[in-house]
UniProtKB/TrEMBL annotation:
Keywords: ATP-binding, Isoprene biosynthesis, Kinase, Nucleotide-binding, Transferase. The active site is at 18, 145. Its EC number is 2.7.1.148. HAMAP family: IspE. It comes from Knoellia aerolata DSM 18566. Pfam families: GHMP_kinases_C, GHMP_kinases_N. The lineage of its organism: Bacteria, Bacillati, Actinomycetota, Actinomycetes, Micrococcales. GO terms for biological process: isopentenyl diphosphate biosynthetic process, methylerythritol 4-phosphate pathway; terpenoid biosynthetic process. Residues 75-153 form the GHMP kinase N-terminal domain. This is 4-diphosphocytidyl-2-C-methyl-D-erythritol kinase. Residues 211-286 form the GHMP kinase C-terminal domain. The keyword Electron transport does not apply.
């Protein structure tokens, strides 16, 4: 006799990386986090995260970065699944399988992206029916930029980066990312930023209206002039070669360049897809980056895709 009930099929969610178009870092708060004003853009470097019911909680990581991502309890995606289960009184464990293509510890929020994808996937697998707002609240418990990876597109982040507001952005932008061999630790880069500032008083960050205007034009030449990152001097202080990489990209024709978040990935904004190909070839030839990848932004946040058939 067949049962009327069958286990739900695994759910796969595709999730983008991010770049900060503007990252203004204010003073350190009592809880150790820094007050931020940032503008995130989701870009088309993706991880795919699949959740499936299993006898026990587990995680596996696949792809070129598998060796440098923990697959145990510290994996942020597995932590996301367990947090959501605890908060919603679910007691059916899942296995989380990550096909990782977002650079690790690169300032592109790869771990946060996997956590965001897992929340969206588990919501579907467990038929929780949570709203985007509810998922973003759980996301904020996992990390400052996890909520943005659920939302995607282009958005402003305040607080420690977790409070999101929409931004009116026109057009589609072409990016080239120069990815380093070895990652940088986000807390170390914030600490270096504090050390470089010393005793200089730091005001609360105020969003730059010229960036908002630039995003409304849809013109990459205009946007390129507004790219800003207060963590860039800290990232360059820890990795002086990033300064040279930025200069090379601009010399090879990028409209603008900026360290992505806490680095060490460097993001170059270019005019169009041909310029992206040219810059990718030129930067690859220098050997100054482990890998050079093209992407477009903005793209959607974490979203369910049809299951892979292997
Ligand atoms: C720098 C940014 C820019 O978007 O991204 P990444 O470059 O790491 O991707 C973010 O602020 C990173 O966000 P996320 O990676 O989620 O950081 P969290 O897990 O919340 O915090 C990790 C650590 O970073 C520092 N931190 C983070 C956010 C913040 N507003 N102030 C901080 O000082 C703290 O030392 C904290 O313990
Ligand atoms: N699912 C995950 N993907 C990537 N890194 C993870 C994950 N879970 C935990 N980590 C850890 O988080 C650290 C930060 O990774 P990541 O989010 O890629 O960088 P960044 O904060 O620079 O954007 C890594 O060094 C890794 O050890």
């Amino acid at each position: 006799m067949t049962s009327a009930y069958s286990d739900p099929a695994p759910v796969t969610v595709r999730v983008p990386a991010k770049v900060n178009l503007e990252l203004l870092v204010g003073p350190a708060r009592d809880d150790g986090f820094h007050t931020l004003s940032t503008v995130y853009q989701a870009v088309s470097l993706h991880d795919d995260v699949t959740v499936a019911l299993d006898d026990d909680w587990g995680c596996s990581v696949h792809g070129p970065y598998a060796d440098v991502v923990p697959s145990g309890a510290s994996n942020l995606a597995l932590r996301a699944a367990r947090l959501l289960a605890d908060e919603t009184a679910i007691d059916t464990p899942v296995h989380v399988s990550i096909v990782k293509s977002i650079p690790v510890a690169g300032g592109m929020a790869g771990g946060s992206a996997d956590a965001a994808a897992t929340l969206v996937a588990c919501d579907r697998l467990w038929s929780l029916g949570l709203s985007t707002e509810e998922l973003e609240e759980y996301a904020a418990e996992l990390g400052s930029d996890v909520p943005f990876l659920i939302r995607g597109g282009t958005a402003m982040g305040s607080g420690r980066g977790e409070r999101l507001a929409p931004v009116l952005a026109r057009g589609s932008y072409h990016w080239v990312f120069a990815i380093s061999d070895i990652g940088l630790s986000t807390p170390e880069v914030y600490a270096e930023c504090d050390a470089l500032r010393g005793d200089t008083p730091v005001p609360d960050p105020v969003p730059n209206p010229e960036l908002m205007s630039a995003l409304r034009t849809g013109d990459p030449h205009v946007l390129a002039r507004q790219l800003t990152n207060d963590l860039q001097p800290a990232a360059i202080s820890l990795r002086p070669e990033l300064g040279e990489l930025l200069k090379s990209g601009l010399a090879f024709g990028a409209l603008g360049g900026v360290v992505s978040g806490s680095g060490p990935t460097v993001a170059f904004l270019v005019e169009d897809v041909e310029a992206a190909i040219d810059l990718t070839v030129a930067l690859t030839a220098t050997g100054a980056a482990r890998e050079v990848r093209k992407a477009v932004g903005p793209v959607h946040g974490a979203h369910v895709i049809p299951a892979r058939v292997d």
